[in-house]
Amino acid sequence: MTVDEYNSAVADYADNIYRFVLKHLKNIDAARDVVQDTFEKVWLKKENIDGQKVKSYLFTTAYNRLIDVVRKEKFQVGEENIDYVKHADPIKNMDLQSILNEALDQLPAIQKTVILLRDYEGYDYSEIGNITDLKESQVKVYIFRGRKKLKEILVSVEAVLEK
Fold first, then answer.
1. Cα angle 37-75-64, degrees, rounded to a multiple of 5
2. What digits encode the pLDDT tens for the residues 111-139?
3. CB-CB neighbours of 102 under 10 Å
4. How far apart are the first and last CA of the chain?
5. Nearest to 157 by CA among 95, 88, 83
6. How many CA atoms lie within 13 A of 97 on its CB side?
7. CA 163 remoteness from chain centre
8. 15 within 8 A of 58, measured Cβ to Cβ
9. Whether domain 87-163 has CATH 3.40.220.10
10. Under CATH, which number does the domain 1-82 receive?
11. Which pLDDT tens digit goes with each residue over 89-106?
12. Taking the complete model, does pTM exceed 0.85, yes or no?
């Protein structure tokens, strides 16, 4: 990969990677750090990366870094990690996007990841498999199960909101 291809990749994919990571972490600073680490790793290995496959490489690197951050956060328990929104009053006057985000947060991490890559970022099944190190059939199963669970969650929220 050339320097121009790298600069083009930064311009083309930085926002997409940031959105993807932010959906998982819900922390602006941590998401920025993951994006920066991702592009740093790509820069250090730019000679070994095909410019045509940089998008997949970037998302794979970001996903792996994201997993590292999530694992690290599991061991850090403190008041700053408590989600007070979840402990507040039941759902009242929430907009559709926040309801969807709450539903996504209830999914297992792998289901959330494949759904975000498929429905938010527009990747096909084989690309998602490459990013997450899953077989294409596994990706389809996780997407199916995740969407099914989302439907169950959203239907129950809809019933609560109608009352």
1. 30
2. 888 888 888 888 889 888 888 888 999 99
3. 16
4. 57
5. 95
6. 2
7. 33
8. no
9. no
10. 1.10.1740.10
11. 444 445 677 777 788 888
12. no
